[in-house]
């Protein structure tokens, strides 16, 4: 325990170093720091120092080890500590340092070592909060308050693996400040979503809270000014309450008779430039205190959508991102909303086109099933689809199962009305995440759909995005190299269900040649981003060469996103050895039907492949697009 004005950095470092070197596997180390952090200007964001009373910042340029660096913990202590270690830092910038980003500290003992962890008191883009009335950092204040209760101390003392038997250890779940007021929070969010964007922002908040008045305040020369306010808000009448409430910190209430004023910051913790002032707030919001202030700040900055369902889902997802965990009923509400939104999507099919120098060689190779908000909206609902990752595996699998069911059902109906023979169906591909392929419920859904719809499993391809990492999540143990494990999983699914797999978005995210070689794939889709590189043709030739280096049949290569903005022509794509492209080269929008290419379109594509007119854009001319 180092506290007081006589603490020296050298003494702390000697003690921690000795503890690390003398440790054994049964030891537990807790490093708890509450204080200030210094970032020297010369470090350019690479060095942060925990402030000790003897720190001389002017000496650091010449003697950088004169202070207590954050990197000292990661470099000289944790890698050498053989037991379990946790660092808790109640200070600013802790999560901004390269020391604590990513997995450096968490995996200090090795790539998959769960022994070392870190808990910081603020997000990377925020400051650790201090409160003069508490005489501590807010985080440390609440830790001390919990320890003074006694029960927490008894629980902690029972977790020492050297002395406690299994029957002595009690596990007490951490309380969530949102749990007590989950019903009120749910009602607040529903009301905000129903009010919609047509109502003024402050009025939406006032109405949803049921408060007397709400104002958005900014700083002026003479103090606060009302930037926007609801009817009935009188700044002069509550100015003295505002001055009484804010010095105590955010989420506090000042009262005068029956009137109460509650404040929440709408900017950085250290700034009083933007505040949300609530007159006569509901009691549950007052009880939430600082947590309630963070709720309103989060909701204030969250954009609404056209539909109440999506707006409510955006609000819940924003809170999930900020708090990490929400009460169970709010989680279930978000899941129900997500299902509703996914069910409202429509499925369209975009053709993958085989190209050639003769127009008779040009035609539809396969189709990709794509989710759209409506048949008139050709934009992918990327934000809504990616929202699943905010909530974790359960939402990701639910999303992929929903899209799979809708896509295969639509494909069955569209193929029945298409000119393609049922004996030789045009293949269809559907996007899937790595996490869903690792989930048995997704595979069960896939197997059931193919059986019930009487589909040819060999005509179904699952496209695995390169933007998904192939690696175990925290707490998972695969027992072998990630690619080996995943490859075996794909082989088992292929043998069991009969579907094929392809690699999507190659060239972005986690793209690598090793990944392309190792996985069992039937074709590889090159992302349109590669088409914007100056060396695009060489990159395409490399992908083709690697695709052919396989023990099985060579994988087909498909170039995605080919349109008038592509820097690479169809002739260059063809000469690189690629025979399949996808994009707006056909001039056709994604459609619910499986349509063949018009003869004029096929002839135009062949002409571009031959290079008859190098001045032509990559895609089909607008006039021809209309006729097609």
Automatic annotation (TrEMBL):
One of the GO BP terms on file: proteolysis
Pfam families per UniProt: EAL, Peptidase_C14
Transmembrane segments: none
SUPFAM superfamilies hit by this protein: EAL domain-like
GO molecular function: cyclic-guanylate-specific phosphodiesterase activity; cysteine-type endopeptidase activity
CDD domains for this protein: EAL
Annotated region (Disordered), positions in chain: 609-628
Record-linked InterPro entries: Cyclic-di-GMP_PDE-like, EAL_dom, EAL_sf, Pept_C14_caspase
Family annotation (PROSITE patterns): EAL
Residue ranges constituting the EAL domain according to the UniProt record: 324-603
Gene3D superfamilies, per the entry: 3.40.50.1460, EAL domain
Protein name from the UniProt record: EAL domain-containing protein
Species this chain originates from: Paractinoplanes toevensis
